[in-house]
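Inputs:
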Amino acid sequence: MRIARFSVREGSPAAGSVSFGVVEGDPARPESLVVHALAGHPFGQPQPTGESYRFQDVRLLSPMLPNKIVAVGRNYAAHAAELGNAVPDVPLTFFKPSTSVIGPTESIAYPPFSSDVQPEAELAVVIGRMCREVPLERVPEVILGYTCANDVTARDVQQREGQWARAKGFDTACPLGPWIETDLDPSDLAITCTVNGELRQAGRTSEMVRSVAELIVHISEAMTLLPGDVVLTGTPAGVGPIQVGDEVAVSIEGIGTLANKVVKRG
Amino acid sequence: MRIARFSVREGSPAAGSVSFGVVEGDPARPESLVVHALAGHPFGQPQPTGESYRFQDVRLLSPMLPNKIVAVGRNYAAHAAELGNAVPDVPLTFFKPSTSVIGPTESIAYPPFSSDVQPEAELAVVIGRMCREVPLERVPEVILGYTCANDVTARDVQQREGQWARAKGFDTACPLGPWIETDLDPSDLAITCTVNGELRQAGRTSEMVRSVAELIVHISEAMTLLPGDVVLTGTPAGVGPIQVGDEVAVSIEGIGTLANKVVKRG
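Outputs:
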């Protein structure tokens, strides 16, 4: 099942209303897609309202408004190596704030305090149940599904400042989308990042140093995860700068493509 | 003005209800304190409901439920030195998650993955208005007030892991309280931490490497701050371990005392 969050475009009696919804159809033919609205949230047993919309009549929003985003650094060995870093003995965990989240139809605003902004394609895990100290074998129970994320990073700021709140937490530094795929085995998916159609990053989730399940165990050992919280699982090799005017696209096999333009901060 | 968040204790018709309120009276004589409930939130022009409670009939909660907490490391030179660190050229910024927040009547739960938990007494700034790219001279406009914070840290985990999400983000790692003092000059306040009444940390906010205003400028350069967001401003020298059974108290001149017991995680 593909769960999106959307607003209804102008021209409909429901224009402007924001809902979760289930997307049906063939993503390769957007004109075939239909969105069935859900009542309330998508956790537990989602209830359809009976309202449906053609895909062209809705605007996709970030599929979740997470309370927190916990991210993991250097979880693909080739990416750690390309920046001159070792794979850490213990997963390297940091937060991105809710104010950094944007959806698939919004733009990355180049932050004025950096001159080296870089995208990082990542598999995002969306938590479905409040949980803490999750045992490895029960991790699947706490996951709602998966989406594409871009862990946008001001590389120069990251290298200058010892902790990464500003480098990875600026407004628009966390594009998420296009939707949450709930039926997916995350263990071996192709993941790519393109800039203006040119391939930059290409990897497979099977190259992760720690698996999705191991990361959830490690993070939830320390802190409660809430429904809607998002865990980013690291990026494969191939990172490099982007510029105002570029279009960055993160694609993950079995999910889809999250594309965002890069604009000057307004 | 002192703004608290509280629930009404058993025995009142309003038992269990949660509100913000204005605390009046002399904190040195708790029996003199009265809490005047506010309608809704304390931002903008707070409106009293007309309901008042004796202090002994309410239970103080964390004075804010922040969307995000942005913290600053090594902002007192003597504390940086005691851990063998230099004062960074650029302020070192990190996040603590909302799930780490507890109030003045809750307990710090010792996390099982650490054997060296340490309190850090800090002045907390509570944001009152949505803002970004705040100029130095306009910082006072975006501040609602100040409270005491304890930036509880698993020191062994912090030293083992390159980024501090687990070391400083575990559940209960961010006690806040007892209330928000809105009329306060933060530039030269005594700040202490005691453990079981024994003085551990003692400093003055005038020893901060970067002032409150400079920190807000620096953080808001990157990210939007929301009403209720909290900025922690660093801790003075004197950090050391605490144990289950201890009582930790953070006191700041002009605000009051935030005391929390340390318990085994349940």
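Remarks. Chain B has two domains: 2-60, 69-264. Residues 109 and 182 of chain B are 30 Å apart (CA to CA).
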